[in-house]
Amino acid sequence: MAADQMGLPVSTTHVLSPGIAGTMAANRTGLQMDTLRNLLLAWVLTQPVCVLLGAGIFAFD
Known about the structure:
The chain is mostly helical and about 60 residues long. About 80% of the residues lie in helices and about 0% in strands. The protein has 3 helices and no strands.
């Protein structure tokens, strides 16, 4: 909702994965801490990695 209000781009994966994890947490079924950690890391690392890759490709061009 925050991304929508601020007009920020988000991928389908970034929207669906936490939605599924949230449903599992609400039902208290099938939620694994490793999965939550991976989702959080994906959210946090996607932007910096993309920026670094883009800068690296631009620098070598």
